[in-house]
Design a protein that fits this description.
Distance between the termini: 57 Å
Oligomer: single chain
């Protein structure tokens, strides 16, 4: 069993670690190089998000499509532009690019 002082010390250390992580998160730049209004339907873009570096823009449903690998499964997933999402992961667009492979739009 730990003492009250040790417990408070651990709480303070945890708080300091979380505060540092929050500062790093806030410092990340989620500003896209290409505004949403300038994206072209069906065009592939280089950028960044948690799970992809290349994605294809679908203007009809206003989101990107990209390949996702999770464990032994590989599938197409969608992700929003930074202008449409403030809480979850987004695809931060950097430039048009040539695809390494085709990304089909889901029906």
């Amino acid at each position: 069993m730990i003492t009250k002082e040790e417990f408070l010390k651990r709480c303070e250390e945890h708080y300091q670690k979380r505060a540092a992580e929050d500062k790093i998160q806030m410092a990340r730049d989620y500003t896209p190089k290409i505004a949403k209004k300038d994206l072209k339907h069906g065009v592939y873009y280089r950028g960044r998000c948690r799970n992809a570096q290349i994605a294809r823009w679908n203007a009809e449903d206003e989101q990107f499509y990209h390949w996702r690998q999770k464990f032994n499964a590989r599938f197409i997933e969608t992700i929003k532009h930074p202008e449409d999402e403030k809480n979850y992961d987004v695809f931060v667009v950097e430039a048009e690019c040539e695809p390494e492979e085709v990304i089909e739009f889901k029906q």
